Structure formats: structure tokens, C-alpha cells
Backbone:
């Protein structure tokens, strides 16, 4: 692990809340995938843990392997080395204990209504009866402000509404951890701000544990309780920041922190580009 | 599209030019075609070459009443449905192999590229050699007509299922048969439906053509045979009645079966391609 990975929290941040039991452990994980150009190392020797109730924002520029890492946690990709453990047990494949909200809008089943999409996940993942699942689904459609659209098919909804359905579906299943893969990246700026606040509300209400991948610094600081900065090519942990009420959006410390991360991201990416090419030679 | 105009106040819509729905437009076109046919046939005045539209309708009516035509239609449909059903089952098997294994995929792409361009009717001599004259030979060529285009469409449909949707399905715990039937099949339904449509059209054409080649000894010949024998007997009005029946059945299946299936599934889901 690089020496600079444990950066002392900035002045505004509060000390770490390390008392919560570990929900997810990513243990020296390296991820590789094959392309036509050869084998690419997306993530190199990354380790971190997420405590129960914690929201970890994985922040980095495109190409730092943050989405690949999230997919590995989701069980869609096997680590080349290292281990991912959920509640102490190694992750073997995809499962509803790690519900994923993807960036793409086509993650909903087009042939099921809003309530139908949520209810189907509940029946499959939690084994609820048809009636129970429907009742819970309606409740969740209401909680994301889509009560009136419960019987609408996904193709009639806007992008933001589709993401709300996906978020409602993920929360309704009550996973051990929620995995969010840049869920608001394809939305317009206004919707993005509103959805971030809504997501934050739901997280705080349910006490959900969350791994949130993003390339936007302000989003990471706003949504996360802790921010992990990844450097690209291959992805490695460059820095870690604690976020607290004092650094919420709109405060002066928020701006300071944002500027600091910005500076580190640029410095980090330059450094990693040089180091990264050496490593790629090792694997190709 | 025209909904906007329909909801306008009556006074406004009166001043507009007449706007017809798609159904009404079709009816007008059909009426014009029939009128043109009637006028041209009357002007020609040779019912051996071209009977008038009304004569054809009369022949259709009388052949229906005397039970000849319904019997022929039934004979054709029986063979057609048998071949269509077998074709669907085989297409499902081949597609499943192609989706599950690399070898199956190569098999499908090789077989379809070999057999898809081969007209089903060209296999009829072989079919006659193997199965003799009878409905088995007809079923054989129909299966050939349905199988390849349907398998190709289904496979394309499965391959086109977005990766995000696949991951979302596996995420909520779908795997094995539930993954296929609760996720892949409905997601590929637009392609499957258009494959079924195409297969039906191919099967129907192939059958009529094949029935004209034989059927002589198969006492219960179908529609194709009806057309063929009536031509031999210079009952041209009956020939046209038979052709009209072929068209009517095609239209009926298209609008009643496939259009309905399309409306209650892919169009409602916004998946229409």
C-alpha cells in the first residue's frame, strides 16, 4: 500500500468513526481484464473497509478503475488476486445482499411497471409473496416520489425517474450494502443535486451502508461520510478523507476540502501515469 | 399523431381537411384497388384470363358454401401449423445451444448462413424422396422455411440484451432457468416476435408453392392444390378465389394474432423496434 494512502484528516474533518463493525472488506484486491490490446490492470492492490452504516465515496477520474472495483464487489468480476468479504464471507458472485444502482437507464425491466420492477426484485431477493411485495413496492415508489407513477412502464419515465425506481428497488431489498455506480452521472445538473439530497435523506433514514462511485468531487463530499481518492492507470488509493456535518455542501470547509482534493487528483494522476506505465509492462 | 386534431373543438375540426385513421385509409385503398380490378376486367371482357372482382367474390362465396374451400383451407392450415410448431421447437433448441455454448453459436451461424439463402421449395425433391408424397414432405419444407430465420432472429435478440439489464437481473438473484425465462426471453421478445412473423410468412408462401407441385395423390390437397386444379380446369374465378383466400388468411393472422401480440407486449413496454 502506498505510504501516502493514510492522509491525516483535514482540519475541518472529524476523527474517524472506526467503532462500527465492518460490513465490507476489500483486501489487497487487484483487478485485471482482457481487451483486444492485451490484459489491462484496472485496479492494483487496493484495500479498504466499510463499516456498517458508513457511506464510502470512491472518487477518481475516468480510467481509475472505480467502476470495475464496484463491479467486483457486486460479484460480476473475480479479483485477479486478493479477496472481497461481505460480513466476513468471501464474495462469490452477484447477489441481492449487494444491490447495485447502475449509471445506465436500462437497468429496469422494460416489461414491468415501476411497482412491478420493485416488487419483482422483492419476490426474487427476499422471497416475499406477490401481495406483500406489491405493498412494499408501492410504499417505496411513494418514498422516492413516484406514487402516481407506480403503474407506469419505464419507457414513459424521465432519466431521473428511472434512477429513482432503481434506487427504490435497491433500498426495498434491504441489502447489506448498497452499491452505486455513478447513478446520477447521466442526469442534468439540477436533477443531480436534488437526487443527491434525496439519496442522502434515504440513507440517513434507513442507516444504509453504501459504496458510492463518482468522478465528481462535490458529489463525493456531499454523499459520502468518507471519501477514498483513487489514482488512475492502474487504480490505487491515493488519499482518504473523513467528511462530517462541518464539511457539508455550502460551508467554507467544504470548499477548502474540494480544492485540496482537486489539487491531489491532478498531482496524483500525473504521478500515477508515470508509475502506471512501469506496472503495465509487468503484466502485459 | 392525429390525436391532437381529434380533440379539437368541433368547429375547428370542421374546417380542417378530412383526416382518416390508418384503418380507414386502408379501407379506401382496398376499395380503390377492387374498383380498378372490376373496371379493368369488365373492359377486358375475358373471364378466362381475368374474372371480375364480383365474379371472384361469387366464386369465393359458392366454394365456401359447398364446403370445398373451407376443407382446403383446413388441410393447408393443419400442415402449416404442424410445420410451424416443429420449426419453433427446433429454433428454440438451436438458439438455446447458441446462447449457452460457443460451439452452439458457431453451429447456428454456420447453419443459418448455409440454409437461410436456400429456398425451402428447392428441398422439395429431396423431401419427396425421403418422405414420399404426403403431408410429411410438406411439413419438412415448412420446418426448413421457419427454422433458420426464426433462430437467427432469436439469437440476435438474445445477444442484444443490454449488459446492464443482464447484470441487474443477476443482481436480484436470477440464475439458470429463471435468468433465461424471467430476463432474457422477455428482453429479446421484440426480436422473437418479428422472427415468428417472418417465419409465418415464409411458411405460408412455401406451403402454397409446395402444394402446387403435388397433392394429386394426397386426396386432401390444400389451398395450393385447389388453385392448381382449378387453373387446369380453367375455372379462373376459383383460382382467384383461392388466391384471395391466401391473402385473407395472411391478413387475418397478421392483424389478429401478431398485431395483438405486439400491442399487448412490446409496444406497451416501449420496446418496439
Residues:
Amino acid at each position: 500500500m502506498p505510504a501516502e494512502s493514510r492522509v491525516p484528516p483535514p482540519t475541518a474533518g472529524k476523527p474517524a468513526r472506526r467503532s462500527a463493525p465492518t460490513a465490507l472488506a476489500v483486501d489487497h484486491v487487484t483487478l485485471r481484464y482482457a481487451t483486444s490490446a492485451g490484459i489491462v490492470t484496472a485496479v492494483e492492490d487496493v484495500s479498504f473497509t466499510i463499516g456498517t452504516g458508513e457511506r464510502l465515496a470512491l472518487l477518481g477520474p475516468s480510467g481509475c478503475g472505480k467502476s470495475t472495483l464496484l463491479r467486483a464487489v457486486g460479484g460480476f468480476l473475480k479479483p485477479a488476486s486478493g479477496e472481497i468479504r461481505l460480513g466476513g464471507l468471501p464474495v462469490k458472485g452477484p447477489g441481492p445482499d449487494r444491490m447495485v444502482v447502475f449509471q445506465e437507464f436500462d437497468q429496469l425491466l422494460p416489461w414491468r411497471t415501476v411497482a412491478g420492477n420493485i416488487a419483482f426484485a422483492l419476490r426474487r431477493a427476499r422471497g416475499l409473496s406477490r401481495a406483500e411485495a406489491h405493498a412494499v413496492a408501492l410504499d417505496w415508489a411513494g418514498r422516492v416520489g413516484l406514487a402516481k407513477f407506480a403503474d407506469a412502464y419505464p419507457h414513459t419515465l424521465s432519466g431521473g425517474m428511472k434512477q429513482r425506481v432503481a434506487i427504490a428497488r435497491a433500498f426495498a431489498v434491504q441489502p447489506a450494502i448498497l452499491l452505486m455506480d455513478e447513478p446520477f452521472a447521466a442526469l442534468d445538473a439540477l436533477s443531480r443535486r436534488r437526487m443527491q439530497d434525496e439519496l442522502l435523506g434515504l440513507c440517513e433514514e434507513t442507516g444504509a451502508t453504501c459504496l458510492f462511485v463518482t468522478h465528481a468531487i462535490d458529489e463525493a463530499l456531499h454523499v459520502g461520510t468518507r471519501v477514498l481518492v483513487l489514482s488512475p492507470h492502474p487504480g490505487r488509493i491515493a488519499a482518504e478523507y473523513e467528511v462530517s456535518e462541518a464539511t457539508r455542501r455550502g460551508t467554507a470547509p467544504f470548499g477548502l476540502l474540494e480544492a485540496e482534493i482537486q489539487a491531489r487528483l491532478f498531482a496524483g494522476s500525473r504521478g500515477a501515469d508515470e508509475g502506471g506505465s512501469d506496472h503495465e509492462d509487468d503484466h502485459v | 399523431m392525429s390525436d391532437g386534431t381529434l380533440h379539437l373543438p368541433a368547429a375547428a375540426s370542421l374546417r380542417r381537411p378530412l383526416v382518416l385513421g390508418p384503418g380507414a385509409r386502408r379501407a379506401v385503398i382496398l376499395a380503390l384497388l377492387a374498383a380498378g380490378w372490376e373496371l379493368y376486367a369488365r373492359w377486358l371482357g375475358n373471364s378466362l384470363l381475368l374474372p371480375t372482382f364480383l365474379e371472384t367474390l361469387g366464386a369465393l362465396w359458392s366454394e365456401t358454401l359447398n364446403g370445398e374451400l373451407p376443407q382446403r383451407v383446413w388441410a393447408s392450415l393443419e400442415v402449416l401449423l404442424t410445420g410451424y410448431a416443429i420449426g419453433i421447437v427446433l429454433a428454440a433448441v438451436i438458439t438455446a445451444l447458441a446462447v449457452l455454448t460457443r460451439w452452439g453459436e458457431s453451429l447456428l451461424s454456420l447453419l443459418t448462413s448455409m440454409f437461410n439463402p436456400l429456398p425451402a421449395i428447392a428441398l422439395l425433391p429431396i423431401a419427396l424422396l425421403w418422405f414420399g408424397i404426403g403431408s410429411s414432405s410438406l411439413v419438412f419444407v415448412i420446418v426448413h422455411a421457419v427454422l433458420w430465420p426464426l433462430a437467427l432472429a432469436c439469437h440476435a435478440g438474445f445477444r442484444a440484451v443490454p449488459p446492464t439489464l443482464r447484470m441487474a437481473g443477476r443482481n436480484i438473484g436470477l440464475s439458470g432457468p429463471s435468468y433465461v425465462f424471467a430476463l432474457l426471453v422477455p428482453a429479446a421478445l421484440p426480436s422473437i416476435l418479428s422472427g415468428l412473423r417472418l417465419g409465418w410468412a415464409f411458411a405460408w408462401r412455401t406451403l402454397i408453392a409446395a402444394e402446387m407441385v403435388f397433392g394429386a395423390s394426397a386426396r386432401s390437397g390444400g389451398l395450393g392444390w385447389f388453385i392448381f386444379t382449378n387453373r387446369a380446369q380453367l375455372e379462373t374465378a376459383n383460382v382467384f378465389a383461392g388466391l384471395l383466400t391466401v391473402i385473407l388468411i395472411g391478413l387475418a393472422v397478421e392483424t389478429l394474432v401478431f398485431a395483438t401480440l405486439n400491442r399487448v407486449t412490446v409496444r406497451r413496454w416501449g420496446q418496439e423496434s
Observations:
- Residues 53-267 of chain B form a domain with the MetI-like fold fold (CATH 1.10.3720.10).
- Chain B touches chain A at residues 162, 164-165, 167-174, 178, 182-183, 186-187, 189, 265, 268-271 (CB under 8 Å).
